[in-house]
Amino acid sequence: MVKRIHVTYTGLTIAHADAEKVQRVLAFHADGCPVARSLKGAITITTQLS
């Protein structure tokens, strides 16, 4: 049984000035994803920028 999904974004080149903006987007992007929305409440989804 899957209880959680952790997504790590790698290989992205992000300017230091945009890092905070990117973190804000990652904080709420799952709310706009149809798959993540269908799993909400049943599975924990977390994201990380590496």
| SSE order | EHHE
Described by strand count, sense and barrel closure, the largest sheet is: 2 strands, parallel
Unreliable sequence segments = none
Please compute the radius of gyration using only Cα atoms.
12 Å
- End-to-end gap: 27 Å
Mean pLDDT: 88
Q: What is the overall number of helices?
A: 2
Total beta strands = 2
Q: Briefly note the structural class of the backbone.
A: alpha+beta
Q: How would you explain this protein's 3D organization?
A:
By secondary structure, this protein is α+β, with helices and mostly antiparallel strands. The protein has one domain. The protein is 32% helix and 24% strand. The protein has two helices and two strands, in the order βααβ. It has helices spanning 19-28, 34-39; strands spanning 4-9, 44-49. The chain has a two-stranded parallel ribbon. It is elongated.
Short description:
Helices cover 32% and strands 24% of the residues. It is an alpha+beta fold and 50 residues long.
